[in-house]
Design goal:
about 180 residues, alpha+beta, Immunoglobulin-like, 6-stranded antiparallel beta sheet, 4-stranded antiparallel beta sheet, 10 strands, globular
Length: about 180
């Protein structure tokens, strides 16, 4: 009986969720000879960014090796935009900030570097921090375009010590034999 109720509850929850709601996953591998950084730094980073299209919230996990939190650009650590953020490098040469990763409790030193964990970061709040008029839909288009770069700014390299292009991770669907 309990098992049946659990299944019915799961089906009801699934049915109540809007059909258009989904989570889009993006990744970036940051290095010194990246898309915008040419610094010779030994630091590296792997980032996962998950965007919930229903709640319009963003989760980020950024694992950095070869640099510490103390290396981050002090000026941006103290600024609302933070020392780590997403830039959109547009075809016309314009560079636009699309989402910050404000410095705060989600930043933690590790034995090999540091980690940033942001859960449920509201896109509208991030856009407001930047005074951006970029709509959520345009943010998603930019993230999927291959023109967005994640950049980490340090005291030593204020233009960015390491960077990497953001790419969308498309889920692989398995087809049934014969399809």
């Amino acid at each position: 009986m309990f098992k049946r109720l659990a299944v019915l509850a799961a089906v009801a929850a699934f049915a109540a969720a809007p059909a258009f709601a989904e989570k889009k996953t993006f990744a970036a591998f940051l290095q010194s000879e990246g898309d915008t950084a040419q610094t010779g730094s030994k630091a590296k980073s792997v980032a996962t960014i998950v965007v919930d299209t229903e709640t319009r919230k963003v989760d980020m996990i950024i694992a950095v090796t070869g640099m510490k939190i103390a290396d981050l650009w002090d000026k941006l650590v103290e600024a609302p935009v933070g020392p780590i953020h997403l830039h959109n490098y547009q075809a016309d040469g314009e560079v636009v900030l699309v989402l910050p990763a404000p410095f705060g409790a989600g930043y933690a030193d590790t034995s090999t570097g540091f980690k940033v964990t942001m859960q449920g970061y509201d896109y509208a709040a991030g856009a407001a921090t930047l005074k951006s008029t970029l709509s959520f839909d345009d943010f998603l288009k930019a993230m999927s375009s291959g023109t967005v770069v994640l950049n980490i700014h340090t005291d030593k390299f204020t233009n960015g010590e390491i960077s990497g292009k953001v790419v969308q991770i498309v889920p692989v669907t398995k087809s049934k034999p014969g399809q």
